[in-house]
Amino acid sequence: MEQSENINELATALAKAQSEIRNPGKNTKNTFFKNEYADLTSVLGCIRPVASANGLSFIQAVEAKAGHVCVSSQISHGSGQWIKQTASLKISEASKNPVQDLGSMATYLKRYQAQSMFAISSEEDTDAQDLGIEDISDEKVAHLDAMLDATKSSKSAFLKVYGVENLKSLTDSQYEKAKKQLQQKKAKQAKS
C-alpha cells in the first residue's frame, strides 16, 4: 500500500466513514455456482454516499500490461491526503477469451479492493482464525474465483473437495494446489 506523506486527516475521516458504512447485502445469484454474493455495484453503493459525506473520494483504475490485469484503488481526502492499493493477476496464456477474462478479473479485484480498503465484508465469517489458520489474500480469492468461472467448474464441488465453506478459508498451500489443478484443467479444455 502506498500513501501520501501524511494521512492524519484522511485517517480521521476514514474512521468516521467506516463506523457509518454497513456491509452490503448479497444481491446477486450466480446461477452456475448456485451461490449469492454482493456484486461490485452493491459494494460501491454502500461506500459512495458515506465516503462523500466524510470528504472522501474513491477511484479505481484498470490496466492490462504484460499479460496481467492490474487494478489500482485510491481513497483521497479533501486535504489532498491519499492511500492507494494495487493488485494484479496473470491472464492465462491458455485463455480462449482473454478480454472476457480480463474483465472478470478486473471486476473481482475492484470488488475485493473496495471491501478491503473500507473494511467491509459481504462474506460469511468463519472460525478459521480461532483455529490459528491463516486465510488466503483477497487477490488469491479473486484469482481462484476467476479460474473457477473460466473453467466452468462447480464451486460447491470445489469447496467440498477442499473441506471449506468459502474460498477465503483456504490455506496458502491449498491455494497453490488448487491453482495448479485449475491451470491444468484450463489447458486441457483449450486443447479440446
In a few lines, what is going on in this structure?
The protein has helices at 8-20, 40-53, 98-117, 138-150, 155-162, 172-191; strands at 2-3, 28-30, 35-37, 56-65, 68-77, 82-90. A hairpin with a 4-residue loop joins strand 2 and strand 3.
What does this structure look like?
- The chain has one domain.
- Helix content is 46%, strand content 19%.
- The strands form two sheets. Strands 1-6-5-4 form a four-stranded antiparallel beta sheet.
- The chain has 192 residues and is an alpha+beta fold.
Question: What's the arrangement of secondary structure elements?
Answer:
Layout: E1 2-3, H1 8-20, E2 28-30, E3 35-37, H2 40-53, E4 56-65, E5 68-77, E6 82-90, H3 98-117, H4 138-150, H5 155-162, H6 172-191
Number of domains: 1
Bin the strand percentage.
Answer: 15-25%
Reading the helices and strands in chain order gives EHEEHEEEHHHH
Can you list the strand order of the major beta sheet? 1-6-5-4
Instruction: Tell me the helix content.
Output: 40-55%
Residue ranges: pLDDT <50 for 5 or more in a row? 124-133
Q: Determine the mean pLDDT.
A: 84
Number of helices: 6
Main structural class: alpha+beta
Backbone CA Rg: 18 Å
DSSP strand count: 6
Q: What is the approximate shape?
A: globular
Q: Could you give a short account of the major beta sheet?
A: 4 strands, antiparallel
Span from first to last CA?
41 Å
What descriptors fit this protein?
192 residues, four-stranded antiparallel beta sheet, 6 helices
